[in-house]
Amino acid sequence: HYSALEKRLRIHGKRDGLSQLPDGEFIDPLPFTSSEKFFGKTIKSSHGYPFIHSRGFGPHQPIRSNPWPRSSSPGSTLRSAIATGKVEILSEHTAERITMHRGQDAAKGILVVNHRNGVRTELDSSLIVICASTIQSVRLLLNSERNQHHDGFIDPSGQLGCNLMDHISICRFFALSKSKENDSFQNSKKNTLSGAGSFFIPFGTKFKNTSKINFQRGYGLWGGIDRFDPPGWLKQIPESNIGFLIGHGEVLPSHQNKVTLSSKLDRLGIPLPHINCKWGENEKKMAEHMKITIQETITSAGGKVLPLKKLIKLPFIDSFLDNAVALKEEAPPPGYYIHEVGGAHMGEKEEDSVLDRFNRLWRCPNVLVVDGACWPTSGWQSPTLTMMAITRRSCLEALRHQHVQKGH
């Protein structure tokens, strides 16, 4: 499923032979900047860290026939679906809840609310695929469950809404002194920052200093140098190249981190989601390790960690930078990097999971939940491609199941 998507979406990358980050079906990687080449060479020789091209999409170059980037639904999968002539888009409506057949063993349809006039309409369906983003998918499920409506579906695990996660992250900017090896260059569209136009240091759980690891799971560092350099007159340190490193770490599921339904309603009369989520001790220890690794990595390449306002002259917005959550010493709170997952996790038994291994509600198998809500743990890699692979896998299984039932 990964391979099919990588080919279809034309993902940039390189075969690196890393067990913690398996190779895929990539088109050529985007080039490193000269500073990134120098940085990677230095940390490989100093620490033996893996240093690879980031995998993903390049900068968007709109064309008249397709102004949307390939990284968006309108520019890729949704565009292809519409081209089949079998898709109808219902805009300005919100899905309120799933409706059930009388025996409560399968979903009948979805109740939607018109934004303009508040009219509720039931859309009948033999198969429902929920992919509304983690929080909203969980909100929809909670509002469809028997605890909320007497005729709702049954969650035998009692886990619906629990185990909400996000990546824990640390961000640092730095200055790298210019040299002959990492002399700055003129930015072009090919060298602007993007998902593939950057570098990655993918540790996973393969840390060199294993004796100092006091936490479970792992993380990776995403970064770039010379990808957004301002004109020289705006630099606080003229003879330098500006870079950043952001660590993303795996967060463990915790029953206390959850989404519930608030007593407050939105303007359509639908209960709002209430989020209660905070970092645990394991995540805090991982964040401390990230800080040390980032500092050591930058220092070994001759760089210096500095606040952004000491790298770039940004008059009138110093107070904004001082209050920017991502620029503070500690990790931003859950939700800041918008990599939320969990709340309706997959599993092998209905007693301890909301969904089965093919993303179906245990007691309502014609409802699939395929976005981040289905994740049993967060992982340390960026989640998008995995979300799409899970979706493809689940939907193909649902279609196969329907064909078998119909005798095809």
3D architecture notes:
The protein is an alpha+beta fold and 408 residues long. Helices cover 21% and strands 21% of the residues. The chain has seven helices and 14 strands. It has helices at 2-9, 34-47, 77-83, 134-142, 281-300, 318-323, 384-406; strands at 52-53, 93-100, 107-114, 120-124, 128-130, 168-177, 199-204, 219-225, 240-249, 258-265, 271-276, 303-305, 360-361, 364-369. The protein has a six-stranded antiparallel beta sheet with strand order 1-7-8-9-6-12. Strands 2-3-4 form a three-stranded antiparallel beta sheet. A hairpin with a 5-residue loop joins β3 and β4. It is globular and about 75 Å long. 37% of the residues are buried. The model has no long low-confidence stretch (mean pLDDT 90).
Brief account:
By secondary structure, the protein is α+β, with helices and mostly antiparallel strands.
Task: Give the topology, please.
Layout: H1 2-9, H2 34-47, E1 52-53, H3 77-83, E2 93-100, E3 107-114, E4 120-124, E5 128-130, H4 134-142, E6 168-177, E7 199-204, E8 219-225, E9 240-249, E10 258-265, E11 271-276, H5 281-300, E12 303-305, H6 318-323, E13 360-361, E14 364-369, H7 384-406
Parallel strand pairs: 5-14
Antiparallel strand pairs: 1-7, 2-3, 3-4, 6-9, 6-12, 7-8, 8-9, 10-11, 13-14
